[in-house]
Amino acid sequence: MDISIVGAGAGGAAAAYSLRDHDVTVFEKSRGVCGRAATRRRNDCVYDYGANYVKADDDRVTELLTATLDSTGLVDIEEPVYTFDAAGTVSEGRDADDHKWTYTEGLTQIAKRLFARTDATVHRETRVGSLTRLDDGWRVHDPEDEDLGTFDAVLLNPPAPQTADILRESDWSGEVYSDLLTAVEAVDYRTIYSCVLGYEFALETPWYGLVNTDREHDCGWLSREDLKDGHVPDGETLLVAQMSPEWSTRRYDDDPEAVCADAAAIVADLLGDERLADPAWHDSQGWRYALPDGGVADAPLRAAERHDLYCVGDWVAGDGRVHLALRSGLAVADRLQNT
Ligand SMILES: Cc1cc2nc3c(=O)[nH]c(=O)nc-3n(C[C@H](O)[C@H](O)[C@H](O)COP(=O)(O)OP(=O)(O)OC[C@H]3O[C@@H](n4cnc5c(N)ncnc54)[C@H](O)[C@@H]3O)c2cc1C
Predict the structure, then answer these.
(1) Domain encompassing residue 286
(2) Cα of 36 to ligand 1 centre, how many Å?
(3) What is the pLDDT of residues 136-192, one digit of tens each?
(4) Tens of pLDDT along 270-315?
(5) Ligand 1 cavity residues, CB under 6 Å
(6) What CATH number did the domain enclosing 226 receive?
(7) CA 269 to chain centre
(8) Can you list the pairs that 271-277 forms with residues at least 24 positions away whose Cβ atoms lie under 8 Å?
(9) Same domain membership, residue 252 and residue 196
């Protein structure tokens, strides 16, 4: 079977891995793979600036990461996650995660290692704009309507709003199409602005991460990349501050310099350490479609599958988690191969 996967996120990569006995062609709009499980290198540091880690909440995914794929460099963050409230009071607890995994080279290793086990052709910097329904299969087009090929089946891995963009531009009609589009358009997302703050001194904390449980603070999550093996040179600190959806939405289009300066001041205030207001360097990324607010109606997706069109990703699984995106990719591949 000739199969096209649109998007090389964790979900798309897991599907490509499971479909490795078929001819798989992947179109990914960005330069790298693994989507929101994203890693950068700068100033001798490696940092995960989207997802922070993968949880061991799914047996099949756990086996994939720890046994099936090469687990060299798999890092299990040992320090706990603490909580804080609107007033900035930090408390122990809520570290429900048995394992918190990344890699010394960062989370993008997940997709890289999955693709390395396949013969899939991965076209990077290739955005898909639309699809055309054929009598048997699908034609895939870029946004300028250039033909990217015809396939027996297509998997759509972008976040729901970007999947909806593709569907709206597509040449397909009928009840299955309109029900699918309505279901995909109904999935809302939270926006998160990630600020990465580098310091040339070591920090002592009893926690790896802090999560704001009442969702009333301007900072939603704060964690230490320097506690991930291989990420940060000794004697330095690298904090990732993920700002609340409200704050992130308000500041989304502002100058990143100003946004990071304000985020650093909020972090300094939260930890009661004035030194943190003045990082030696910073980086940032706005994630407009960071986390889906719940899942999608299942029936319209299953109906589209009978027309060889599959949706895959965290929003299909019902929550914004890397392990759920991976599981969604494996599950969709199972269904495709069993039709
Ligand atoms: C700030 C932040 C913090 C997070 N923290 C955690 C965490 O700690 N733990 C956790 O488990 N999860 C976390 N998540 C969620 C996690 O990152 C996602 O659930 C998971 O990575 C989603 O994978 P996916 O394959 O569904 O989608 P994505 O990773 O979004 O992959 C979709 C891919 O499709 C590509 N694409 C989009 N449109 C097109 C197009 N038209 N043509 C071609 N390609 C296209 C994109 O470039 C992308 O590579 C976090 C997310 C964010 C943003």
Answers:
(1) 55-105+189-292
(2) 3
(3) 999 999 999 999 999 999 999 999 999 999 999 999 999 999 999 999 999 999 999
(4) 999 999 999 999 999 999 999 999 889 999 999 999 999 999 999 9
(5) 6-12, 27-30, 35-37, 50-55, 127-128, 157-159, 162, 166, 192, 194, 242, 287, 290-291, 313-314, 320-323, 325
(6) 3.90.660.10
(7) 29
(8) 271/205, 271/222, 273/203, 275/199, 275/201, 276/197, 276/199, 276/239
(9) yes
Establish if 46 belongs to a structural domain: no
Report yes or no on 165 lying in a domain.
yes
Same domain, 215 and 285: yes
Interval 183-200: pLDDT, tens: 999 999 999 999 999 999
Written as six digits, the tokens of 164 are 């909806």
249 within domain boundaries? yes
User: At residue 13, what are phi and psi to the nearest 5 degrees?
Assistant: -70, -40
- Examine the domain organization and report whether 130 and 161 are in the same domain: yes
Contact 194, 36 (CB under 8 A): no
Q: Which of 322, 324, 326, 332 to mutate to test ligand 1, by most ligand atoms within 8 A of the CB atom?
A: 322
Residue 48 lies in a domain: no
Structure tokens at 271: 């930890």
Helix (H), strand (E) at residue 314 = helix 314-317
The CB density around residue 76, as the number of other CB atoms within 10 Å, is: 14
Nearest to 131 by CA among 153, 161, 116, 104: 153
Q: How many domains does the chain have?
A: 2
E strand or H helix at 325: helix 322-337
Distance from C-alpha of 249 to C-alpha of 92, rounded to nearest angstrom? 29
Same domain, 180 and 148: yes
24 and 166 share one domain: yes
Closest-CA residue to 333 (of 135, 114, 50, 180): 114
**What is the number of the ligand 1 atom nearest to the C-alpha of 320?**
19
Running DSSP on this structure, what letter comes out for residue 18?
Answer: H
Ordered alpha helix ranges (H), 136-244: 160-169, 175-185
Place of tokens 């019902």: 318
CATH number of the domain that 9 lies in? Answer: 3.50.50.60
